[in-house]
Design brief:
about 210 residues; Metallo-beta-lactamase, Chain A; six-stranded mixed sheet; 7 helices; about 25% helix; globular; binds zinc ion
Length: about 210
């Protein structure tokens, strides 16, 4: 498996291209920009992009989805519980960024707890982790976890936005993510990578 990271969009979200090296089938986890350079980088990776899997519906993770669907003819999945967030995209863009609002219209597929996506021999399993948003979803690929804005290095996602809930995010991390092996690598939605073991020991928000 090969993983490429692209930091894109108005709040520097991490987008991860996960590639099966044998078949060159790939998924893109989050899609935060429609910038031509981003599209060209994915094209030059020489992959068959099969799915875009969204960790949640916040605008700063989804802004490239319509363009990518058009260019790559790919299916995009998000939790149905986050369609309300996707509808808020134009509002969020104006409120937080003062940037030209856009509507994202091409998301029509929904991911549920336990769903498995396949690229070659690689399985990508969805885990539902509400808290940052109601439909927050993490993806497990072997010994790697793609945590979106549920778990960051030393922190968790903010819970003060519409439908955020601090008790839920703590429960999601402690009861679901912290049952994974300590050496699980965590690829976060913003900023640095971490591991489950590191967060169990040092995450100040979860250890109070
Ligand atoms: Zn978010």
């Amino acid at each position: 498996m090969e993983i490429k990271v692209f930091v894109e969009g108005p709040i520097d979200a991490n987008n991860y291209l996960v590639i099966d090296e044998k078949t060159r089938d790939a998924v893109l986890i989050d899609c935060s920009s429609s910038r031509q350079e981003f599209i060209d980088s994915v094209k030059s990776a020489n992959v068959n992009l099969k799915y875009i899997l969204l960790t949640h519906g916040h605008f700063d993770h989804i802004l490239g989805v319509d363009k990518f669907n058009e260019v790559f003819g790919v299916e995009t999945y998000v939790s149905a519980d986050d369609m309300s967030q996707i509808e808020l995209t134009p509002k969020f863009m104006e409120m937080f960024m003062g940037i030209e609002p856009v509507e994202i219209k091409s998301i029509k597929n929904f991911v549920n707890e336990g769903d498995v996506f396949k690229i070659g021999d690689i399985e990508i399993k969805a885990i539902s982790t509400p808290g940052h948003t109601k439909g927050g979803t993490c993806y497990i690929v072997g010994d790697k976890l793609f945590s979106g804005d549920t778990l960051f290095k030393g922190s968790v996602g903010r819970c003060d936005l519409p439908e955020g809930n601090f008790n839920d995010i703590v429960k999601s991390v402690k009861e679901k993510l912290f049952t994974l092996p300590d050496d699980t690598e965590v690829f976060t939605g913003h900023g640095a990578k971490t591991t489950i073991g590191f967060e169990k020991k040092y995450n100040e928000i979860l250890n109070v």
